[in-house]
Design brief:
globular; about 180 residues; alpha/beta; five-stranded parallel sheet
Length: about 180
């Protein structure tokens, strides 16, 4: 016997109506946070390119880059407006911050494979055990990725260089 996910019958005014979103068209729910705050929020694991992308976006938009270090600072900047906010994965997962992220502006998750990220971080920071770093990042991703997905509006391919992502991000934020 099959079970159905939809258990209620709903009356629909125009059953044949469709809404498709094409390049350049804005989804209203994505625009709401942006219209109110003008913020761009960048999420991702270490090595995903958040800081460099923030710098490039700042150059193009004239908006300041804010990188809060504590949950209290994160809550303060997320409540503000007109900034590019880079959030550490630990802050995104913090109880006092998690619920604020989605409504703080347009939220971008820089998604990338943990093997790639661990290689970038190992090279950048001179880590001698990239395999251990990869295991740590993979374990961290298992915890924070659901939080990222609950907060995001857009996914950017963190496997690409930030310079390759800036035009896509600018298009999505409406510049």
């Amino acid at each position: 016997m099959a079970k159905y996910l939809i258990n209620e019958v709903q009356e629909i005014e125009d059953a044949g109506a469709e809404k498709r979103f094409v390049k350049g068209e804005k989804r209203e729910d994505y625009a709401d946070g942006w219209r109110d705050t003008g913020n761009v929020v960048l999420l991702g694991l270490p090595g995903s390119g958040r800081n460099e992308l923030a710098r490039l976006l700042s150059e193009r938009t004239g908006k300041p880059v804010l990188i809060p270090a504590t949950p209290a600072e994160a809550a303060e900047v997320l409540a503000g407006s007109g900034a590019i906010i880079v959030l550490d994965d630990g802050l995104v997962d913090h109880d006092d911050v998690r619920h604020l992220v989605h409504g703080a502006g347009k939220v971008f998750y820089l998604l990338a494979d943990t093997r790639l990220l661990s290689g970038r971080v190992a090279q950048r920071d001179g880590v001698e055990d990239p395999e251990g770093l990869w295991r740590d990042l993979s374990a961290r991703l298992a915890v924070v990725e659901p939080v990222f997905y609950s907060a995001l509006h857009f996914i950017l391919q963190g496997s690409q260089a930030p310079a390759e992502l800036v035009e896509d991000a600018l298009e999505k934020i409406g510049y």
